[in-house]
Design brief:
Layout lengths: L2 E4 L6 H16 L4 E5 L5 H9 L6 E2 L24 H11 L3 E5 L5 E6 H10 L4 E5 H8 L2 E4 L4 E8 L15 E5 L3 H9 L4 E4 L7 H9 L3 E4 L4 H7 L18 E2 L4 H10 L5 E4 L5 E5 L1 H5 L5 E5 L15 E7 L13 E4 L5 H12 L5 H14 L10 H14 L3 H13 L6 H6 L2 E6 L2 E9 L3 H6 L1 H15 L3 E8 L4 E8 L4 H5 L8 E4 L4 H16 L1
Parallel strand pairs: 1-2, 1-15, 2-3, 8-9, 9-10, 10-11, 12-13, 15-16, 16-17, 19-20
Antiparallel strand pairs: 4-5, 6-8, 7-11, 13-14, 18-19, 20-21, 21-22
Helix pairs in contact: 1-11, 1-12, 2-14, 11-12, 12-13
Length: about 525
């Protein structure tokens, strides 16, 4: 089963590169790990991916349980031209309750159950036969004496009368079952019937066979007697004559389990067909399958709070967490590997895991991890930077030989441009929610060298934050505009507590004020807001 490795919503470079690097490590250890992302790749991250020729991780919307995660039953389907008797025998031999009827591309055309077969035998049209000649020969174990047509579609008669009695009653729509009654057979041939079923394994004189060929009449000799043949002939019909094809309750394999519940609550079928988005049949599910669905397996990097993670995380099986933030609210039903270190980047921890596993690091993966560390530590200017971050970059760069300062500035330059981005794009690029002392606080951080563009958007950003605060019931919404060169941040905020930031930073903090030295949301902003909230309670 695939394991999804992903970082937080609105992923930054560390989130993306740590997912890529960890997924590669897990693959080398024999796991089917897939690097994923929850949102668009930022310009800075795209620069990194392009520089090291790495594809962007797969985008996923959520990790909720889907129909395809359920261990449903796969049964070989049958074609619409299959006989009813063959369908029945397939069910009995394989202990199937329901069969899917499929076209040549395995697209679902209908379904047939034991009940459908039983009702067909009780209420079906016993006088009509719609099947192929080969189907009849195979199902009845017969021998074709003449084969003038491939498809049979007509009215069935068992002829037990004197031939003059039936004069005028036979024609091109007729199918007759008869023993070795030559007078009847000759009359039927002259009447141009579709098919003569000759019972008792009998054969016919050459003259009659030639006459049948000349009149385009097919003749099938079967081993059964007339009574038995008449009894089972309707089971030779195409299964399409009794299959259910309209208003079939079917599920698409990408549907979510939640979406099935209403349908299952109001219907009581034994089995429900599952198809892919192209209507190709993939199996059957029933209520027992829904009792133990296979949960998606995930590894979280660069976060451990449910609000920052994928939708439906509570339905997934978390295998592992690799992070460098404070401990959040994510819980699991069983013990897992939880690796959390006070370092400046998740990539620092992932690089350590490579060393522990003694697994070689390809250049592109080394480049990804270097970029993750440089980005999250702001080229070691952030107070979150640790000696281990510096040592990690030094170790990885031995094989890359990058001019680190030049590369870091190019990366930041690519990422800080706001050109072509909406106000929402700018704000949500790195927005996270936190519960601090019982209060919900949202903090966005934008690293940019384009401060004039932020000034132009001041009013629209303020309006957006007011809306987010109201709609999300936030205690405070804060925007940090961090200037990498000046090593500080401009702040914009909306709050239910008017003086919260002034309390936090021990002095008046107006809209757009620059706070020197404040670069880290995690180490320099959140702890001060926590203290300010506590002081006001």
């Amino acid at each position: 089963m695939s394991i999804f490795v992903f970082g937080h919503q609105h992923p930054d470079t560390d989130s993306i590169t740590s997912a890529i690097s960890l997924a590669y490590l897990k693959k080398q250890q024999g796991m089917d790990a897939i690097p994923c992302r929850l949102d668009a790749v930022s310009k800075e991250t795209q620069f990194v991916l392009d520089y090291f020729h790495l594809p962007a991780p797969k985008k996923i919307d959520n990790v909720r349980i889907q129909v395809k995660d359920i261990q449903y039953d796969f049964t070989q389907g049958i074609t619409p031209e299959c006989s009813i008797l063959t369908a029945y025998q397939t069910m009995v031999q394989n202990h199937f309750e329901t069969l899917a009827v499929l076209d040549e591309l395995e697209n679902l055309q209908g379904i047939v159950s034991m009940k459908d077969i039983a009702m067909g035998l009780i209420k079906g049209d016993f006088y009509r036969l719609h099947t192929s000649l080969r189907n009849l020969a195979t199902t009845l174990g017969g021998t074709l004496l003449t084969e003038q047509r491939k498809q049979i579609d007509g009215e069935i008669s068992v002829i037990a009368f004197y031939y003059k009695t039936i004069q005028g009653t036979l024609g091109p729509d007729s199918i007759i079952i008869v023993g070795d009654r030559y007078d009847i057979i000759q009359h039927a041939i002259e009447s141009g019937v579709q098919l003569i079923i000759l019972t008792g394994n009998n054969t016919l004189p050459k003259e009659l066979l030639k006459m049948a060929s000349d009149n385009a009449v097919s003749i099938l000799s079967v081993p059964q007697n007339t009574f038995h043949t008449a009894k089972i002939i309707d089971q030779c019909n195409y299964v399409s004559t009794i299959m259910r094809s309209g208003n079939i309750i079917k599920f698409i394999d990408t549907q979510y389990l939640e979406e099935l519940k209403d349908e299952l609550a109001t219907t009581h079928f034994r089995n429900y067909p599952v198809v892919d988005v192209s209507n190709r049949f993939v199996g059957f599910i029933n209520r027992k399958h829904l009792m133990t669905p296979e949960r998606k397996q995930v590894i979280l990097v660069d976060h451990n709070e449910s609000d920052q993670s994928a939708d439906g995380l509570e339905e997934a099986q978390i295998l592992e967490v690799i992070d460098h933030h404070k401990i959040g609210d994510i819980s699991t039903s069983m013990p897992i590997s939880f690796r959390n270190k006070p370092v400046g980047s998740t990539c620092t921890i992932v690089a350590e895991m490579y060393q522990e596993a003694n697994i070689p690091i390809p250049n592109e993966i080394a480049g990804a991890m270097v970029s993750g560390v440089l980005s999250d530590t702001l080229y070691f200017k952030s107070p979150t930077t640790t000696p281990q971050d510096r040592e990690t970059v030094k170790m990885l760069n031995k094989q890359l030989n990058l001019n680190l300062e030049k590369y870091a500035m190019e990366m930041f330059q690519a990422g800080t441009s706001l050109e072509g981005q909406s106000t929402e794009d700018v704000f949500y690029k790195d927005f996270k929610s936190f519960y601090l002392e019982g209060e919900k606080v949202g903090i966005s951080q934008v690293f940019t060298l384009d401060l004039e563009e932020i000034n132009k958007r001041k009013e629209s950003l303020q309006s957006l934050m007011e809306r987010i605060k109201h709609d999300g019931s936030y205690y405070m919404v804060l925007l940090l505009v961090t200037d990498i060169i000046k090593e500080g941040s401009f702040v914009y905020y909306v709050s239910r507590a008017r003086n919260l930031l002034s309390t936090a930073f021990a002095g008046p903090v107006d809209q757009g004020a620059f706070i020197p030295g404040v670069i880290s949301r995690k180490k320099q902003v959140i702890p001060k807001i926590v203290e300010a909230i506590l002081s006001q309670k």
